[in-house]
């Protein structure tokens, strides 16, 4: 019989998996960026280094009397969900999923 999890558990597990994948992505990107010269192609993908430039407004450079004046501020309300563990993840066999792709360890 399959153990049914709640929506909170599903959300927490997905966020953990996303965090793991982001960490792996950052490590792979760092390896690629450390390569001097041409970046070798994979079997089915090519990586290109793309550089973007944009102008960013720096509000800290405004005079303090404008920056701190409440007339120039608007309140923005956002909602988000925070996942808090109720019990140890070791209560779920096989979780968290840990995968190691040996092809990606050698760049």
Mean of the pLDDT scores?
Answer: 85
Largest sheet: none
Number of strands: 0
Proportion of beta-strand residues: under 5%
Report the principal-axis shape: flat
Distance between the termini: 42 Å
Please trace the helix and strand order, writing H or E for each element. Answer: HHH
- Give unreliable regions as ranges: none
Structural class: mainly alpha
The DSSP helix count reads 3
| Fraction in helix | 25-40%
Rg estimate, integer Å: 22 Å
Structure in words:
The structure is a single chain. The chain has a domain at 7-34. The chain has 3 helices and no strands. The chain has 107 residues and is mainly alpha-helical. Residues 4-31 form a coiled coil. Keywords: Coiled coil.
Looking at this protein, list some descriptive labels.
mainly alpha; flat; coiled coil; 3 helices; 107 residues; single chain
Question: Layout of helices and strands, plus pairs?
Answer:
Blueprint: H1 7-33, H2 64-67, H3 102-105
